[in-house]
Amino acid sequence: MVREITDIARTHLAREGAAGLSLRAIAREMGMASSAIHRYFPTKDDLLTALIIDGYTALGEAAEASQRAGDPPAERWLALCHAVRDFAVARPHEYALLYGSPVPGYQAPADTVAPALRTTLVCGRIISDARPTPPDLAPPPPAAIGPDIEAIRAVMPGVSDDAVTRAVTAWTALFGAVSFELFGQFDNTITHRREFFDHGMRSLARYLGL
Amino acid sequence: MVREITDIARTHLAREGAAGLSLRAIAREMGMASSAIHRYFPTKDDLLTALIIDGYTALGEAAEASQRAGDPPAERWLALCHAVRDFAVARPHEYALLYGSPVPGYQAPADTVAPALRTTLVCGRIISDARPTPPDLAPPPPAAIGPDIEAIRAVMPGVSDDAVTRAVTAWTALFGAVSFELFGQFDNTITHRREFFDHGMRSLARYLGL
DNA sequence: CAGAAAAGAGAGCAGTGCTCTTGACGAGCG
DNA sequence: CGCTCGTCAAGAGCACTGCTCTCTTTTCTG
Questions:
Q1: Is A57 part of any domain?
Q2: What are the tens digits of pLDDT across the range A75-110?
Q3: CA dihedral A202, A63, B202, B169 (to 10 degrees)
């Protein structure tokens, strides 16, 4: 029952986006009274939460599936990048739900952070396996962010301070690139999206020292 | 009249976000009938467009104001980054309107692209003035994206192919970092937001060859 | 088989964007 | 001067939303 609701919700989401999501419309499509649906999802936010968790999980699985154990780190990084982008291109509204502006009034509950971490962990593993020693002269991180670096190192053990901060920067660049493409910032500018993205991510691999 | 409406709309936007924006609420606050407001903004999308254009303009002005002519490129880049971030932190909902997920059903009209370009131009000028020759061995861009690079070079004349693509990547990293911070992706992870951002952008300056 | 618990239906409230019709007001023109 | 015409605003109304409350039906359990 819950599954059927989220499935229909996902099709609505794919067709019209998050704001076009309507509990009443879902109930109508199920031949149900509009009030009955509140028994399964008391509030619209609860439905959104379910969709978000499912989305993070699907993305995390795609990210994991992109990894082949023996591959060199640079290739694994590239595969991860394309997995994220492919997911976003295939299900743009779902991606927007995860990484776009938060739905106003909606506060993500704690249940979402574990699934959200899953994709990040794939990245962390790549860096951790590679133990990169980036080639050049990055400025040393200021003392203030030491604890933050330490916390992030939890997902990429054994990695140097410099490599940790570079990983975070590359990580934001990845999602920045995907978001820009999806949210129309590249309209009338970049036509060969996939190739451009691929090149940018290769460049970042060097930046990462992979 | 139009100005008064947009001003009130901006305060509502700042308080409750884009989805909390209600034409009726604005009319109510103005002591106006709800229907009268449609004379000035026939549709809610028209109001949004006005807010978006204003937002891009304000951000563009802040970006321009951050630049001091004599400064070295790396410092100008850093100043630009902080201008963008400061804007986003001060007016998160407005930033979300510009760079977050597009409001569903809303199609940005052509009037928005010129103001949107303004901030980008500041970045282009920095790169163009610096004419960086990035230190290391980036892979050569594939032939397919040649025309795209050519188009982007319009905002940073005289810059090498490699530097152009790096600039785009750094540009997406900048907005990726700001969006991650604003949209909650750094919650429970990074505490010293400003310092971390600053360090990342310095690192990107090296990546850019500044 | 009877009673309790769960599931659904229906009406209703307050709110939304938007349209249509109606009424006031003032400027331009014969 | 009087008359028309365009602008501005108001009001009612439509279709829709999330959500609550009450009431009935179904289903499971002891």
A1: yes
A2: 999 999 999 999 999 999 999 999 998 776 677 778
A3: 40
